[in-house]
Amino acid sequence: MTKIVNDERIFNEDIGDSSYPMPIDTEEVYRLKLMHYAIKSAWKGNFSVPVKEALERGNAKILDIGCGSGVWIREMAALYPSSTFIGIDISPTFQSDTNPTPSNASFQLCDIHNGLTFNDNTFDYVHQSFLNGGISKTQWEPHIDQIVRILKPGGYIELQEGDVGVDNENENKDMHLIWEALRGFLVDINSFKVIIPQVKKFLESRKQLTNIEFNSQFIDMAVSAGKPGECVS
Fold first, then answer.
1. Which residues, in sequence order, are bridge partners of residue 10?
2. 3-state DSSP call for residue 36?
3. Of all helices (H) and strands (E), which one includes residue 154?
4. What DSSP line would sit under 169-193, residue for residue?
5. pLDDT digit string (tens) for 168-179?
6. What is the DSSP letter of 120?
7. Quick one: DSSP state of residue 87?
8. 3-state SS class at 84
9. CA 205, chain centre distance (Å)
10. Could you tell me which of 50, 100, 37, 51 has the C-alpha nearest to residue 80?
11. Which residues lie closer than 8 Å to 205 by C-beta, 6 or more apart?
């Protein structure tokens, strides 16, 4: 079910335990795309795990959890036409993007809190980016178990999650308030400073997973930083 606020923004209603707070309209598609490009720029590409050879060889199967606008899936599918890409999200935001979808890509509505509806050992690579706002601290461990279950032996998992805060003292007072409000929301649902180390422990405790690496990047989302700052405007 959807609802329209002030005849303008379109939101989802009644979508389970996630309390998904974001719109599902074309403006949200634009914001998600900007976020995607900010992350891509910071990490110098769409992925960091060593899967390029497998993607180019073909017959690889890739899942993007919380695909949002679908921009990551569409870009990857266009670059690697011999592999298969599936994007899932609780919100149909990907339907609002008018860009064409490559034939080797598809999208599905999925509430991950009810489990991932794929068979064991299905995917060569599972990608997930910025789902902090959709997974509570009690849901992370069973969610990771689901990812491990659907990952093929020898496959790769890449999780991109983060904290938010104000580091730029030149930002105006209103932007400080916006950032702190956003961070407060995320802390309320995820205990932010606690959950990221916990996710690390969850991954390390799964005997099926090896060669676990953790890296960090600072992404300047301030308005003064240019385009990335528009992600929250």
1. 4
2. helix
3. strand 151-160
4. TTS-HHHHHHHHHHHHHHHHHH-HH
5. 555 556 555 655
6. T
7. E
8. strand
9. 23
10. 51
11. none
